[in-house]
Design brief:
The chain has 331 residues and is an alpha/beta fold. The chain folds into 3 domains: 2-61, Alpha-Beta Plaits; 71-138, GMP Synthetase, Chain A, domain 3 (2-Layer Sandwich), CATH 3.30.300.110; 161-328, 3-Layer(aba) Sandwich (Rossmann fold), CATH 3.40.50.150. The chain has helices at residues 13-22, 71-75, 95-107, 164-171, 191-196, 208-220, 238-241, 260-266, 286-296; strands spanning 2-9, 33-35, 38-42, 57-61, 81-84, 87-90, 114-118, 131-135, 140-145, 148-153, 179-182, 200-205, 227-231, 245-250, 267-280, 300-314, 317-328. The strands form 4 sheets. It has a 7-stranded mixed β-sheet with strand order 13-12-11-14-15-17-16. A 4-stranded antiparallel β-sheet has the order 2-3-1-4, with helices on one face. It has a 4-stranded mixed β-sheet with strand order 5-6-7-8, covered by helices on one side. The protein is globular.
Length: 331
């Protein structure tokens, strides 16, 4: 059967395969083939292939491969799980069902070292949760996302793999030479790839352990020289970084509005704010827009460039993002 494949030199095969996997472009139904010095990597959708490989796309007959054993095949139903590095996360209130799923994950071909079940909601100003360890004993892992690696310990820091596509959307807007401030940076899933685009990034977080991982991740991804990691309240940066930011990331959806005065103080003459919020479906974007306009006052013209529903958060509530440009008005 003829399928689209990315054709590259054999020595680049694993690098390209990994890049395609990060972009969710791999076709798991067909086998990778080698012909001479060229490796052919099947892709599921041409539209998901990163632009850097677009000119390497070819049509080629590929053999179907045996599908791995999945937890669903063992259980007879599709469990609610997600992967974070070599950790599989279960989300079940029923302990017996959670352990059943964990056993199926371990018996399947899903690569993992640890299976965890959420034992509490995200709590406190450090945004961490408790976990029940069902398989293994290590809550630390290395997660790969769009070509970057992030070391983290889920018991000590907040990280959501579900936001990978949203993070990539924001990162793709960044130009080299920008000055960016990630106001609630965590372990760096925005800050590190933004720096990889050539921006200089100040990344702040209250969680000192997250900032330690942030520094490690900046070094791991080769951008330590462009990331300044700060442990503390981002409002304390106003005196030293006022009027400097070309871009601000405000991913603290329950309370980002409390930091808008600081954001406006940090903004340069022309600044894009990526403002995350959680609101009712009746008016998901209005409260954020009005809060930004109030904080900007007469100092900035406010233009909402994008209104985006990131995901459903709770019944009748959405996690949303507003991309808002602040342009300083003439005195």
């Amino acid at each position: 059967m003829s399928v689209p494949c990315v054709a590259v030199a054999r020595e680049r095969g694993e690098t390209v395969r990994s890049r395609l996997a990060d972009a969710d472009a791999l076709d798991g139904d067909h086998q990778i083939a080698v012909d001479g010095d060229t490796i052919y990597i099947p892709v599921a959708d041409r539209g998901l292939v990163p632009a850097e490989f677009a000119d390497r796309l070819v049509e080629r007959d590929a053999e179907r491969r045996d599908r791995p054993t999945t937890p669903a095949e063992i259980l007879g139903y599709e469990p609610s799980i997600e992967r974070l590095g070599d950790i599989v996360i279960v989300d079940e209130d029923d302990d017996e069902r959670a352990r059943e799923i964990a056993e199926a994950v371990s018996a399947s071909d899903v690569p993992c070292e640890t299976v965890l079940n959420r034992a509490s909601p995200i709590e406190g100003e450090l945004r961490v949760r408790s976990w029940d360890v069902l398989v293994g004993d290590d809550t630390e892992t290395v997660h790969r996302e769009y070509g970057h690696e992030f070391a983290l310990d889920v018991a000590e820091v907040y990280f959501s793999p579900r936001l990978a596509t949203e993070r990539h959307r924001v990162v793709e807007q960044v130009d080299s030479g920008e000055s960016a401030i990630d106001m609630f940076a965590g372990v760096g899933p925005y800050a590190v790839p933004v720096a990889s685009r050539g921006a200089d990034v100040v990344a702040c977080d209250l969680n000192e352990r997250a900032v330690e991982y942030l520094r490690e991740n900046a070094a791991r991804n080769g951008v330590a020289d462009r990331v300044t990691a700060v442990a503390g309240d981002v409002r304390d940066l106003v005196d030293s970084h006022a009027d400097t930011a070309d871009r601000l990331v405000m991913n603290l959806p329950h309370s980002a509005d409390e930091f808008l005065d600081a954001a406006v103080a940090l903004a340069g003459d022309d600044c894009v704010i990526h403002y995350y919020d959680i609101q009712h479906e009746d008016d998901p974007f209005g409260p954020g827009r009005r809060a930004i306009e109030a904080a900007a006052g007469d100092d900035y013209a406010v233009a909402v460039e994008t209104e985006r529903v990131v995901r459903s958060y709770a019944p009748h509530e959405y996690n949303v993002c507003l991309d808002v440009r602040l342009t300083r008005t003439a005195d």
